[in-house]
Amino acid sequence: MKIRKTVAALLTLAILFCTFTACGGTKDENPGATNTGAEYAIILKTLSNDFWAKMKAGIEEEAKTLGVKVDIFAAQSEDDTAGQLTIFENCLTKNYKAIGVAPLSPTNLINGIVQANQNGIYVMNIDEKIDISTLRNAGGSVIAFATTDNVAVGEKGADFTISKLGESGGDVAIIEGKAGNASGESRKTGATNAFKKAEKIKLVASQPADWDRQKALDTATSYIQMYPDLKAIYCCNDTMALGALQAVINADKLGKIIVVGTDGSAEALESIKAGQLDATVAQDPAKIGATSLRQMVDAVKNKPKIDPNQEPKMIPVDSYIVTKENAK
To answer: Given CA atoms 38, 41, 46, 52 in this order, what sign does their dihedral have?
Structure first.
């Protein structure tokens, strides 16, 4: 008899436990709605770079504010164009209503975007501009493009360098990103135009280092050897700027050659505060990510027509110079 009562008591406890814990399930944060998982996905370039890590954090914070769920993915590296497309294609098998993409090249995700549009999925272009003409000819479209004005970024980096060199001017060089990459090309263009307009400034070299620290170190080392009067190097991202800085240190020219980066990465900021890197043109990746997610949510809510002939809205996010005086 005691055994039966004990068993009955245990069964009652088990039923109560399942009732309160949903038998191992999780509590629905939106009572009355069916929990079907995330409606939004965002595919970044990589998470190994501080810029993209900050963007991820900004997206996640905005998702909390908006009360939505978002899945965030990234390629293995900034060379993994095929892998990024595979991630996109995998997203098309889910129930996402909108997908944000920061493409590794202007064209590597075009086929995926076209397929997404055919499935009624909105696509948001983030940071790296898609080749809109090629996309349109393929029958695809994006709802908007959120990014920093990268021509202005390059101009700001060059203008700071010119101001720092002062009346004496001198020889300067640029370390570019990956050839053909839209943001890198725009930064190079902005810096090149500013340097060429400046009196007493001579742009002696401009070469790509593929966003890579070691390649930038090698490129800067070559610049220093080839141009003994070199006074400054502007780099199209902070990773390359830190590589160029190492080349300057190796040549025992710290303080004699100005090095300016781009992005406002944590390591670059620490270097600036330590008096090594001279400056960086800081972007606001968290704001770019948050802005992009808001556009995606608005599209799903308002349901605009997916139209390849519609010019995507440009949403600029500002940048600013960080020096030792204002570095945090």
So the answer is: negative
